Amino acid sequence: MSLALAHLSKTYTGRHGTPVQAVQHLDLEVQDGEIVALLGSSGCGKTSTLRMIAGFERVTEGSITLAGRRVDTLPPDKRRVAMAFEGYALYPPLTVAENIGFGLSRSLGRDAAAQRVQNVADMLEIGPILGRHPAGLSGGQQQRASLARALARDADLHLLDEPMGQLEPQLRSVLRGRVKAALKSRGLTSVLVTHDQTEANAMADRIAVMEGGVLQQYGAAAELRDRPANLYVATFLGEPPMNAFSATVQAGGLRLADAPDTPLPLAGVPLPAAGDNVVLGVRPHRIRLGEGALSGTVISNQWLGDQAHVVLEMADKIVVTVAHQRVAVRIGERVPFGFAPADAHIFDAATGRALAHGTRTA
Amino acid sequence: MTGLSLRNLHVKFGRHEVLRGIDIDVAPGQTLVLFGPSGGGKTVLLRSVAGLEPAARGQVAIDGADVTSRGPEARGVGMAFQNFALYPHMSARDNIASPLQARGVGPADVTARVGAVADLLRIGHVLGHMPKELSNGQKQRTALARALVGQPKVLLLDDPLRNVDAKLRYEMRLELPRLLRSAAAATIYVSQDYREAMALGDQVAILLDGRIAQSGTPEEIYDSPASVNVAKLFGDPPINLLPCRPTDAGNALHVAVAGLQLSVRAERAAIGRACLLGLRPETMSIHADARPNAARAQILATTPLHERLVVLLRAATGEEIVASVLGALPPAGAPVWLSADATHALLFDAETGERITAPRAPREIAA
Q1: Mean pLDDT, to the nearest integer, of B193-215?
Q2: Pick from A177, A300, A362: which is nearest to B178 by CB?
Q3: Which residue of A91, A179, B173, B217 has the lowest C-beta tally within 10 Å?
């Protein structure tokens, strides 16, 4: 079912009576069957937003509409929202199976409910612990039980709060695929709250990046990657993060602060007026090693099994590059590098706002 | 020999043997990353080298001298921990200086050495701050500086980047190799992140159940894991493991899994045995058309990971398979075919878990 947040704000009263604006005028629409991630670091407002949607927190201003109903004045149990929490919140006296199946047999009948519990437990690899009680489980098992309970339910919205944070990374990367497939095959509308961009990228159809209580950008992962709205979004998303170079605009190109003697022409990128201070952003895997007008000294060359990270030092600037095969450069070696204008991103040095993007979209 | 040598080291907690015969050599300036799941004995091993846990059997030698019965302060070992362990009532400067002062180094010398190590770690500007005024990244740099300031022969780092945020962790991962090489200590670095282990280790030792399951260069461990348990620890998404029984195909073994037909080089003794075929996700490809040696499959979900697409598939024969590919996929709902690079396939004995395929030669490096 679709979800609409309109002009949603949350203001807390701070320690000395000063108002703290946790969420500021948030407009966000989630379509029926869509998976949306609220992504940001701690304190960005994502958890306050989640708590307002769930009904644990009163809205200060604005509205929440779910499946065509205004829900922001309803108590949590009337909102038809299924939740998986970071703190698990399993019922201690019930077994894992009873926790997951809680209330299901009333709506589905006993056999169908048992089948659903088994399916979701198999998917999350907790079948063997269905008969156990929460107290004896590891953090990762409790988290999967909590996620299983949310996924087993029929609801208008599934709210998943850091649902895999406690799991070991390799299990996570397989479960992400299975959970996404399950959400999609049942057409469940979901909001995923996470600080982990890897999780957001993997799972979400669209990502809402929040910072300081303000929505920075809302779009598909590819859009955020290719056309980040500002330097915050540009450097927050992407691992390793985008390289950011201080630069000054000059006729037809840029002059980098760390390579002032090497004019960089940037054909096809609409640049601001000559003399303006900007930040040039280039993603690590878009840096071309071995060709180009710039150069740097190799300070590390690390092979990680499926990718190489080669790091250069250019004056005081660290330049990170990523390749998908091994790279034959040695530490201490001086190597030329460059990038295509299509891979350049230009930001206003003062405000961080994006001014221009290269044309690459893959 | 110079550096650190452990010979047949055993450590017991009561009657429980936590370390069961550890042999390790680390040369000065080299880093050995100790890797493995929690509970495997990594921290106990570090504490034992530091002299904080007595050895039940075996030897710890530093620069050729047997230090097994020496106390911690007489070993010349520097340590840093994941929880920083700074003295809360002392400034960053005094924290860093503490090991020197304990050894009675003169004030002028202390100032010079603290200044030099602080420059190296880029914390010169916060030396006057108390620990509570430092960010987690600065705390970790302060703890590293304290470990390095005494110019120890052996440096023990217990997952020092665990509690710093992802961005800082990545920056430190780039900076540390240079720092550790210049410190010239024999370093043991404990990590629970396989990428960190590969990035920082000259050698990686995998500690499972109190024993070294495998040690070697990061590349050897990734390309030629000694066992299924080691193979599963390296790689994200993790290696696919598919049950099979190899058959005789002349000078190679023939393996049929998930509709794929692969020719694998391994001992003929594996013919007819219950095996697991290990296929790393990044050695698999997805095609929009049928081709020889490709199997029909259905895409269940696509979960992008950095520049790659991690694809969860179900083979027509029912197996779940994960592929990690670069570039575009066939449109959603279109039929796909899956293939695997047989030269990267790993065959393991299903019962013992040991690798059967011959170790891989180091790969050609693209210029």
Answers
A1: 95
A2: A300
A3: A91
Interface confidence, given as ipTM, is 0.87
Judged against a pLDDT cut of 60, whether residue B365 lies above it is answered with no
SS3 B182: helix
Spacing of C-alpha A132 from chain mean position: 33
> Nearest-CA residue of chain B relative to A123?
B320
Q: Which of residues 104-163 of A touch B (CB under 8 A)?
A: none
Amino acid at A80: R
Give the per-residue pLDDT at B170.
85
Beta-carbon separation of B306 and A238 below 8 A: yes
**DSSP-assigned letter for residue B144:** H
The arithmetic mean of pLDDT across residues A61-73, rounded, is: 96
Q: Alpha helices of chain B — where are they, by DSSP H?
A: 42-50, 92-102, 107-120, 136-149, 166-183, 194-200, 218-223, 228-233
CA distance A163 to A177: 13
pLDDT given at position A191: 97
Mutation site for A-interface testing, chosen from B170, B223, B307 by largest number of A Cβ within 10 Å: B307
DSSP assignment of A170-225: HHHHHHHHHHHHHHHHTT--EEEEES-HHHHHHH-SEEEEEETTEEEEEE-HHHHH
Chain-centroid distance of CA B88 in Å reads 31
User: What value does the mean pLDDT of chain A take?
Assistant: 93
What domains appear along chain B, each with residue ranges and CATH number?
A: 4-224 (3.40.50.300), 240-349 (2.40.50.140)
Least CB–CB distance from B310: residue in A173, A184, A285? A173
Q: Which of A203, A300, A304 sits opposite B303 (nearest CB)?
A: A203
What does the pLDDT look like over B85-103, one tens digit per residue? 899 999 999 999 998 988 8
In A, minimum Cα distance to B298 occurs at A181
Rounded CA gap, B139 and B295, in Å? 53
Q: Count residue pairs from A and B with Cβ separation < 8 A.
A: 114
H or E segment at B71? Answer: none
What's the whole-number mean pLDDT along residues B253-269? 92
pTM of this prediction?
0.88
Nearest to A199 by CA among A28, A32, A36: A36
Residues on chain B touching A33 (C-beta within 8 angstroms): none
